[in-house]
Amino acid sequence: MLQQAVQRIVHLRQYNGSISFVPAPGFEAYGEHASYNNISEPTNHHNKCGPSPEEPVNIRQHGYEGPDINLENMDWRTISGPFVSVWLHNVPWGSEDTKAAPDAKFSDGYLDMIIMRACPKLSLLSLMSGLSTGSHVNSPYVVYFKFRKTKLSSI
């Protein structure tokens, strides 16, 4: 396991894309202002199972359909990559020994986003050792905030 972790750090992957989100109260300073109408659609169209853009989709709803929400009137923000990792959580623990989102609460109505940016490999090792306590979120290479809605786009 340790050998695989070291190998991943040495050959670190980075992912390009953008993350658009509506921040929770108190987290409005994260990201750049964005308009919902200007949030780009993913350019990757590998979905062979779904309908083509020309085919109409008839979706039947069962039960409560949720509130009518106007996404255009929300305060959207965007953070652009490259990213080393992006985690979305609604509970603090990602596994029994990984406290990925230390401030997450199951019933607070928000999700927690943990974004890890590219960093020196030695700093990345230090980040990995902080995952068990949640101290990794204090790193300058980690962005940690709460949000209400999100849209992930790859480039």
Automatic annotation (TrEMBL):
<dbReference type="InterPro" id="IPR045540">
    <property type="entry name" value="YegS/DAGK_C"/>
</dbReference>
<dbReference type="InterPro" id="IPR016064">
    <property type="entry name" value="NAD/diacylglycerol_kinase_sf"/>
</dbReference>
<protein>
    <submittedName>
        <fullName>Sphingosine kinase 1-like</fullName>
    </submittedName>
</protein>
<feature type="domain" description="YegS/DAGK C-terminal">
    <location>
        <begin position="90"/>
        <end position="152"/>
    </location>
</feature>
<dbReference type="InterPro" id="IPR050187">
    <property type="entry name" value="Lipid_Phosphate_FormReg"/>
</dbReference>
<dbReference type="Pfam" id="PF19279">
    <property type="entry name" value="YegS_C"/>
</dbReference>
